[in-house]
Amino acid sequence: MAVASGRVNRVAALVRAGLSRKAGVRGLIAEYERAALKLYKPKGYSKQDTMRSIVMLRLGGARVAEFAHRAMSLPSVTVARRNTVLCPLIVSPSWPTEAEIEQNIQACLEPLAQTSEAHPKNPAPNIDVG
Predict the structure, then answer these.
(1) H-helix segments, 21-130
(2) What is the pTM of this model?
């Protein structure tokens, strides 16, 4: 009944934080009441929350990501930047060499390969750069 009232955002994070501290039902209810009074805000973010924050940052910029942090209780812009999976590309002062192009292609496709290992239903493209 208390959870359905909607007085607290991110109830799942609150429960996850309480269970990690080995809190019982009474402890969880006490933390919920503190959160309803705005005396407690759980800070533990799931991977999904972090990814949402990264999408907001990349598609909308820092202002949209900051707004999402405040309005939707997503991780901050700093956390989103720290957890970004993009690798820096090598910049060539003149014409790029074959080795620089190869490194840039590998830097772009490496995160895809890691994602496809975690999700075998969506394999990464198999591109031979050699």
Answers:
(1) 25-36, 47-60, 62-72, 77-82, 98-118
(2) 0.51
